[in-house]
Amino acid sequence: MKFEWKGVFPALTTKFTAGEQLDLPAFEKNLQAQLEAGVDGIILGGTLGEASTLSAEEKQTLVQFAIEKINGRVPVILNIAEGSTKVAIEVAQNAQKLGADGLMILPPMRYKSDHRETVAYFKAVAQQTDLPMMIYNNPVDYKIEVTLDMFEELADCQNIQAVKESTRDVSNVTRMINRFGNRFQILCGVDTLALESLLMGADGWVAGLVCAFPKETVAIYKLAKAGRIQEALHIYRWFLPLLELDIHPKLVQYIKLAESVTGLGTEYVRSPRLTLEGAERERVLQIIREGVSKRPILPEYKNL
């Protein structure tokens, strides 16, 4: 499938049973809600997908299941988060064989590669697959920044097409555009900077709280791109306390709790993560319940 890196791409959570097995019925329910809301693609095996706890076989199951259920309506993207170049290439090639439409890729895991090593890693993977790729630039959480100079060296890899911009510096959207024009499509990867990034020219939003609030997320994107800024702001200001759950180390537990409240998932996570309890759970639950109680009425947005 040919597609553009534009619009809302949910970083889907991986649904588990109480026994930590894949819960495909719960996954399908959430997936259908995303499609109904009008998302433009889905991403599997990211941070929210608890990638570090998934086996290769489980990732394969999720990809195959998503492709079957989506049936060509939107692209299916698999995240690559590996410690070796060899394994990253294997994941990319296997994803292509399974029928995935694209890849999101982090710098090497567990080793802090330097400029030369990081560029070589991305190039090595890009040269071994035909799939379009989006680089995930998140130096806050993963300690390696993909700099503008690195992107300059990667520009000759035609299948490196986009960046998930998670530096938490919204000015980086403008820096990328000033340096590269439209060579790389830019998707905001931080929920609390999404509207700001879209207004600065970002092409899309790799979203987290979309897992629990798909319609509101897509509405903000559509309204912003249609120039209906005040309507987008109204929803975004309501949304912000919820979006802030995306920038906490326990974002997986927080967002899964939100999914359980909105009926789009369960709280179950895979160890070493543990479900929330006590005062922490009550604090997060209060934020979620307050947001749900004040949920805005959305304008018609799908055809914007």
Defining traits:
12 helices; single chain; 45% helix; 304 residues; eight-stranded parallel beta sheet; alpha/beta; TIM Barrel
How is the secondary structure organized here?
Blueprint (H helix, E strand, L loop, with lengths): L6 E4 L13 H14 L4 E3 L11 H15 L5 E5 L4 H14 L3 E4 L9 H12 L6 E5 L1 H4 L5 H7 L5 E6 L5 H10 L4 E4 L5 H6 L4 E4 L6 H12 L3 H15 L7 H12 L15 H16 L11
Parallel strand pairs: 1-8, 2-3, 3-4, 4-5, 5-6, 6-7, 7-8
Helix pairs in contact: 1-2, 1-9, 2-3, 3-4, 4-6, 9-10, 11-12
Structural overview:
With 304 residues, the chain is of the alpha/beta class. The protein has one domain: TIM Barrel, CATH 3.20.20. The protein contains 12 helices and 8 strands. This is 4-hydroxy-tetrahydrodipicolinate synthase. Keywords: Lyase. The active site is at residues 136, 164.
Going by CATH, the architecture would be Alpha-Beta Barrel
End-to-end gap: 23 Å
Strand percent estimate? 5-15%
Highest CATH level, the class: Alpha Beta
Compute the number of structural domains.
Answer: 1
**Rounded mean pLDDT score:** 97
- The value of Rg in angstroms is 18 Å
Query: Count of helices?
Result: 12
Stretches where pLDDT is under 50 for at least 5 consecutive residues are none
What is the succession of H and E elements? EHEHEHEHEHHEHEHEHHHH
Query: What level of helicity do the residues show?
Result: 40-55%
Q: From the helix content, strand content and strand pairing, which structural class follows? A: alpha/beta
CATH domain topology = TIM Barrel
Task: Count the beta strands.
Answer: 8
